[in-house]
Please model this.
Amino acid sequence: MPTFKAPKGTRDFYPEDMAVRRRIEDAWRSASIGHGFEEIEGPTFEHLGLYTVKSGDGIVSELFSFRRSGGTDDYALRPEFTPTLARMVAARGGSLPRPIKWFAIPSHFRAERPQRGRLREFFQWNVDMLGLDDPSADAEVLSTGLAALDALGLRPDVATVRLSHRDAVASALEALGVERESMYAAFQLLDRRDKLPPEEFAKKAGDLGLGPDGLAAFDRLARIRRPITVDPAEIAAETGVPVAAFEPMVALREALDDAGVSEWCEWDLGIVRGLAYYTGTVFEVHETGGGERAIAGGCRYDGLVELMGGPPTSAVGFGMGDVVLGLVLRDRGLLDGIEPPRPTVFVLVADDVAERPAARILASLRQAGVHARRSYRATRNVGKLMSEASRAGAGHAVIVGRELEEGMVVVKDLRGGGQETIPVDSLVTMFTGGDDE
Amino acid sequence: MPTFKAPKGTRDFYPEDMAVRRRIEDAWRSASIGHGFEEIEGPTFEHLGLYTVKSGDGIVSELFSFRRSGGTDDYALRPEFTPTLARMVAARGGSLPRPIKWFAIPSHFRAERPQRGRLREFFQWNVDMLGLDDPSADAEVLSTGLAALDALGLRPDVATVRLSHRDAVASALEALGVERESMYAAFQLLDRRDKLPPEEFAKKAGDLGLGPDGLAAFDRLARIRRPITVDPAEIAAETGVPVAAFEPMVALREALDDAGVSEWCEWDLGIVRGLAYYTGTVFEVHETGGGERAIAGGCRYDGLVELMGGPPTSAVGFGMGDVVLGLVLRDRGLLDGIEPPRPTVFVLVADDVAERPAARILASLRQAGVHARRSYRATRNVGKLMSEASRAGAGHAVIVGRELEEGMVVVKDLRGGGQETIPVDSLVTMFTGGDDE
Model:
């Protein structure tokens, strides 16, 4: 007799797990719609080339790729949503009204070693705004993400947005002596600075053209973390970078302030984000304690739609997965007590003669859209059945018994207390607020 | 410049497509919850063995199977949900309270030739009830499916449930002379009767032990289609089968009547359903015209949980995909006019000085949970901006302009007509019904 388990790094969602997932998805969907984004989705797998076209991505080594037995096409399970979105925008070329404001909540797959905060299948909320090359788009996308965190019970004292701007950092690095053609390598070094021994870091910085002074300035720049209310001019003074380099940060800060999300945000010029197609604004949302991986990550990716064969299109977006977010919420008790929907009515059979009429009463309630359940136990002991109704979390119990001979049933209010005997015919009306059809 | 397309047989869901999918999913979810089912989900891919353990399934040839590059495990994209469900029930053994009432709306994958009504990736609603070996469970599952069809606008004159009962048909075939050990072959023949030339059909029937009389009776049985209100005894008389064979149909008919769904149902003893693990009740939902594939298919599968290593567990359920259902609804105009959610408020900037205050007004509305949009156009022409607000389907337009100097904005009712000038401070209250926070 074989026994099967879910594949490593995937999850079974039993009703209590699914209730939590629904809570998170509902917060994501409500925030998206409230901010004027429209939902889209794409295939769960794509042609492998869609993910490998942009070489240098770390994601490629984590792909679940496959070829259909007997087929000739190579596919991969979706590791991220942005390539699908860029493909969809490219396919409709210029015919979509701008700006395009889309969100999606699909499943994603990464063939990496499962560990805390990382699974092989997870759900990720993607919010993207395309065709508006203005910091207000960055702020709109980010404030959508924060609205969902707020709805889930997270506040600026618990979650922080760490922001940087690749153009600003690139200008700063250039001012410190990094050659333009070494900029990609410089960002890679910035990203890995805490993972490298100091001497290796110094050597690599030297390869970029930085002397000891430049190295010290690079290091200071990488460690800048300041409230967003701090004027970028101050950061320029502190790091010895000309203030003009930080110009893009001034406009971004203003847009974030207008969007009412400044209190969540801080500058962190060490934020790089891995993907090669990122441009401009980059950010990560972290729990303030910092123990977990990033809750969300976002960026501008102005070149990607064109890479997919579409028109040049500015773009900004973020992804927020369910795994780290779930850990952060659970650690703070914000997922306690979440359970599947509870019934409005629980129907009990108090007498054998009532069994088939009770089935019909149940059906009429359900056909009217009332969430109604019944006991499946053979007992006619009303006390035991009432306990079952309470355990089910029902609002009311409908007791179908001998009163039926007079066309009546007993309705018990399980929350407010009290009971009344009412005609069977008015039962549906009682629970649909008058519209009995 | 590469251009990519969605893989063959998969779909891109643009906002208007996604709105339709949400409509269908919402009907499925509401019907499920109203009937007391709780939502679950499982992994998108499973160990290949989960699907091949029950050999003889047609599904195996349509699997998207794969092995992770560098890995040793064989996986397959989910072609149906029932094996996952049975695995989940088996994993929790006897600890789940009975009956188990679960539903799921996951994506499914079949590597078959895409054609009308069949795609390689589709969504399927699964409703299952386990641990109650009673026809009332069959009726409860089926009436849940019909409640969703009803909510989507289908009625018994458009959609028909064709029901059979494998035990009854097996008893009938036995009475006609089919040996017990040939029963599986007999059901295969029953399933394929319309695809075989008469002489081949007669030959295969002969192999089952049926003489000319038995063959004629078999053929009559296979073509029985009667309203569910017809007494199975009548069918017995008509086919020359002892009435006792149809006993299971009597109880099923009573349960369907109590559940209030008889008018949707008819007996069709030619319904077999392909899967080898089906037992007892089998049914398909078809549009009455009959031109499309089945909208839904369901059955008892009492042995499956045990096959997955769990305790013996009675089970009944159905699956309803989004593709055929979508075709049937669309052909009847029942998907016309479905669009993504429309905004409550559309914010316009009527003067340059109002630009940043308008951004703050927009943010405050959204933070209060109001679905609010804005114009992204540079124009300050109120007429043009109002047209844009109307096209967006907004309920109200908020015009932010020179009135702001007195702390006022203009609110225009785009549906009822009329406008008023109100203090900025009371704007959020106006759209949240008083709770301004």
